[in-house]
Amino acid sequence: MQKRQFLVTAASWTTALSTPWLAGCAASGKPEPGSASDTQAGFADAIYFGGPILTMNDAQPQVQALAVRGTQIAAVGDRQAVEALRGPDTRMVDLQGRTLIPGFVDPHSHLGGVGLQAIAANLLPPPDGPNASIAELQQTLREYIKTSPEAKQLGLAFGFGYDDSQLKERRHPTRDDLDAVSRTVPIAVIHQSGHFGSLNSAALKKAGIGADTPNPEGGVIRRKPGSKQPDGVLEENAFFFTLGKIMPKLSEEQSMEWLEKAQELYLQYGYTTVQDGRADPGAVATTIVAAKAGRLKVDVVSYPDITQLGDGAFMHGPYYSRRYTGHFRIGGVKLTLDGSPQGKTAWLTQPYLVPPKGQKSGYRGYGVLPDAKVNELVAKAVNNGWQILVHGNGDAAIDQMIAAVRASGPVEKTRAARPVLIHGQTLRRDQIPQLKDLGIFPSLFPMHTFYWGDWHRDSVLGDPRAQNISPTGWVLQQGMRFTSHHDAPVALPSSIRVLDATVNRVTRTGKVLGPEHRVSPWIALQAQTLWSAYQHFEDDRKGSLEVGKLADLVILSDNPLTMERSRLATLEVLQTIKEGRSVYQKPH
């Protein structure tokens, strides 16, 4: 990725920029004596004009110009008024028809996981990777083992992003499939959902998993037919616990490098605020080191796993705050109640359309924790005033969350804590008024309509349940806001793919899934900017282009409000600007 530090004078700005559409025009003239811009401190550092500027502010949706001074927005409005802040060194940035919007605020993903994704073999299916069959996946892994410095450094080959629903064989790769790649190098491949993995024999041995290893609570070790021997595929907690056992301890510098690679991927898609959901203590410690060393380019808000808090020191230290220190803060805690609908481990009240391998008719998935434990953890968060993000894909898991929040204390206290339902893919219509009453904020996952919509309709849920996954239309009917996320590394952290799916809800085969849940591009953009900032208690300084807010900006190749909605997926992020400073520019 190309990075460029822009110069401060108008003349050198024009010279430094080799991208024609960003070329500035020279500043000229002096301010009137006694005017607001009569001192150098009053001048703008940069003024953007010449293209649509979408503020995400309903009271002033679009403006002609925007001025930046220091890290903040100094003015928005018509060009003549904004140019009152133009001084001799103000950079005049002509958008040349391109569109300026606020920086994207990530409402849910896993920064640490994206770091792993960035160094792992890309096992994603088309269009994000080449792996449409197990044979292609095996070839990708062979090339990775030959060429990857990380595989050699770690003594372990990681692959990320395989999807059994998109592989020709319609199954997970097994230990036998991975043994065909290597019997000596431990191999661990991670499902695109992040809720499954498959290990070869060397990795299973390294993890200490054999025929006598029992299933952990909330997880399954799949076995070979007619045998207790593991077939290599691990579900939920069986996979999570195993990954921790086989993962080598990284040096501090290796951790920093992974983190920086993850940041670059988010910046490529215009994210200026990134969430690290379900962070473990090691990930929190690493990010604090990065913050102290000045290596964070984006704001990172972390939500440690509430089941791994230990003595809870992080939640009582200086980083648990509504404000960032070195671009890092801890925003609350995360709790996971079930698994993945596309992997058929989400906890439903009604059976899956086609049960997964080894399960009988009537299978409904399963929860991770008993009700009593969930009630205890949610009450702990609410009573401490911690915002809690709760992963609930299946409607049974959502019922469990609602019951726990209701039991946690007075509704005024729960509303103040603003608990968040993460994913809510099978959110029922009758559950939405309950969310509203309790102050539970829904962060939904419409991007599933593209990646797994056909799978949901034909195998996971069937109609009409599949039509109503991530039911944004029902949420809006209740007068509620929502956010729309990518859950990276489940998918690439693509703001554009999120936008397209939230607006269009078109599956891989071109079918519309849930037309009543389509929303306008304006609403979809708000769900990725202003409403995401609100979810994080940051809408006073982020999410819209208003005077006094941070100059977190993104320049897009086209105007998402006026282009054909069917072409939204072709949008490109051309530049990402964090607090007035360019931190990413698309190579040309």
TrEMBL record:
Gene Ontology MF: a single term: hydrolase activity
Organism: Comamonas resistens
Pfam families: Amidohydro_3
Protein name (record): Amidohydrolase
Region of interest: Disordered: 210-229
First and last residue of the signal peptide: 1-23
Domain of life: Bacteria
Keywords: Hydrolase, Signal, Transferase
Enzyme class at the top of the EC tree: hydrolase
EC number: 3.5.-.-
Domain Amidohydrolase residue range list: 92-584
